């Protein structure tokens, strides 16, 4: 560990909860350099929905590299980009009746968000973006301005403006679904809210605590956006690519965002890739007006196209994810019932689930105990009050049950509740 302590910045975080050196990874398992296996219920923060080193995707990647195929191409045309765009059109857009154009904004999710915000402001001529309590959209300045977490915002070092925060679904004990609060602000010239360019929302807030918006709330939000001429941006970076069941997390609500941001599992293999999907009429960019060096990650195009055709040509993965999500919900509900005194309850949708605790420090203690037992589990929420489950969608039922058993054992060891006399 000495080299990490001596040379790596203090900003590192995940390694502090998992103080081992990882070496190999296959499927739903990672292995430290001693060979000890760890069942992965984090999946690269949702970047590995199809598991580690999926053999079909690995074969595509190796063939691409062995063939001396172009790796870096800026935004020049390439055969890999052509094939990826064809897969996006054939597998994702056309079957869903979506008429989006695809922008390659850079390698990471924050690049997709920055492009979305910038385009919304350019198209509408307005500056303000509405975001929501406990939302998370990235660590660059524009994305931080629409992020709720005070610790992350504090790292900016400068004021974060041109954004307004509104309550997410159920933030005020269910009193916000009809959006009278937002309409009142938009219609009152004395509210202090400039007419917004756009609204940005996660359908399930990952970093914010696995808070799932209802389908009705999302439809109400879309209605307000249409009524007042605001663009609707759905940040599907962590909850897209099938995490909640359907490929896009907004499909269940029956809404059609103006702009969608994707990253994490869109490459299928954990390689950096991000997309900003924009309705055709919104594509008002001038050539080169928004650019970057790493917009042509061709190995990621190759694995991304293969992932779409392998996993999304039919409904099998969606059905499997919903079934496994129901299993996780049932088991977590049983665990939560055992720790009602600690305020335990279950959140989430599909295979994005959280075991939340009102007892301070309980979720972090559960994650620490789980690591000791060979399970990688992270926390989320403003106070790290949620033990967050993001297992690969391809995790077997047997491994899901094993991981849930470990969570149950860890909670019994870590959570303090009054014992019967």
Automatic annotation (TrEMBL):
Which InterPro entries is this protein grouped with?
Aminotrans_3 (IPR005814), Aminotrans_3_PPA_site (IPR049704), Dat (IPR004637), Ectoine_EctB (IPR012773), PyrdxlP-dep_Trfase (IPR015424), PyrdxlP-dep_Trfase_major (IPR015421), PyrdxlP-dep_Trfase_small (IPR015422)
Molecular function via GO = diaminobutyrate-2-oxoglutarate transaminase activity
The UniProt gene name for this protein comes to: ectB
Q: Name one Pfam family in it.
A: Aminotran_3
Give, as in the UniProt entry, the pathway in which the protein acts: Amine and polyamine biosynthesis; ectoine biosynthesis; L-ectoine from L-aspartate 4-semialdehyde: step 1/3
EC numbers listed for it are 2.6.1.76
Q: Name the SUPFAM superfamilies on file.
A: PLP-dependent transferases (SSF53383)
Residues in the signal sequence: none
Q: Give the required cofactors.
A: pyridoxal 5'-phosphate
What protein name applies here?
Diaminobutyrate--2-oxoglutarate transaminase
- Which species does the entry assign this protein to? Nocardiopsis suaedae
Determine if Transferase is one of this entry's keywords.
yes
- Give the keywords, sorted: Aminotransferase, Pyridoxal phosphate, Transferase
Q: Which family does it belong to?
A: Belongs to the class-III pyridoxal-phosphate-dependent aminotransferase family.
Q: Is Transmembrane given among the entry's keywords?
A: no
Matching entries from Gene3D superfamilies are given as: Aspartate Aminotransferase, domain 1, Type I PLP-dependent aspartate aminotransferase-like (Major domain)
């Amino acid at each position: 560990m000495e080299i990490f302590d001596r040379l790596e910045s203090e900003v590192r975080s995940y390694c502090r909860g998992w103080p081992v050196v990882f070496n190999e990874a296959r499927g739903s398992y990672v292995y430290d350099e001693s060979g000890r296996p760890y069942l992965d219920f984090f999946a690269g923060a949702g970047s590995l929905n199809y598991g580690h080193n999926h053999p079909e995707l690995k074969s595509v990647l190796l063939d691409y590299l062995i063939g001396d195929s172009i790796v870096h191409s800026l935004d020049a045309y390439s055969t890999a980009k052509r094939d990826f765009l064809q897969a996006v059109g054939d597998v994702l857009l056309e079957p869903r009746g979506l008429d989006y154009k695809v922008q390659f904004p850079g390698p990471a999710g924050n690049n997709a968000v920055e492009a979305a915000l910038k385009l919304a402001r350019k198209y509408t001529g307005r500056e303000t973006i509405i975001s929501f309590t406990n939302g998370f959209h990235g660590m660059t300045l524009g994305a931080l301005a629409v992020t709720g977490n005070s610790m992350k915002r504090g790292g900016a070092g400068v004021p974060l403006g041109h954004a307004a925060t509104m309550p997410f679904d159920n933030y005020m004990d269910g009193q916000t679904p009809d959006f009278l609060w937002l309409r009142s602000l938009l219609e009152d010239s004395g509210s202090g809210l400039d007419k917004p360019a756009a609204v940005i929302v996660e359908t399930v807030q990952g970093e914010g605590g696995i808070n799932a918006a209802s389908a009705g709330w999302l439809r109400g939000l879309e209605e307000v956006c249409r009524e007042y001429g605001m663009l609707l941006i759905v940040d599907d970076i962590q909850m897209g690519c099938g995490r909640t069941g359907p490929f896009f997390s907004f499909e269940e609500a029956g809404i059609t965002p103006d702009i969608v941001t994707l990253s994490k599992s869109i490459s299928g293999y954990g390689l950096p890739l991000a997309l900003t999907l924009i309705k055709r009429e919104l594509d008002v960019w001038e050539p080169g007006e928004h650019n970057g060096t790493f917009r042509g990650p061709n190995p990621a195009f190759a694995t991304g196209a293969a992932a779409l055709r392998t996993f999304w040509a039919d409904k099998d993965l969606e059905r499997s994810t919903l079934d496994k999500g129901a299993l996780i919900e049932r088991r977590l509900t049983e665990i939560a019932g055992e720790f009602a005194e600690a305020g335990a309850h279950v959140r989430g949708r599909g295979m994005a689930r959280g075991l939340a605790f009102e007892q301070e420090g309980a979720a972090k203690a559960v994650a620490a105990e789980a690591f000791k037992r060979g399970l990688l589990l992270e926390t989320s929420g403003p106070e790290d009050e949620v033990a967050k489950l993001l297992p690969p969608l391809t995790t077997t039922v047997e491994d899901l049950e094993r991981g849930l058993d470990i969570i149950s054992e860890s909670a019994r060891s870590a959570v303090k509740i009054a014992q019967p006399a």
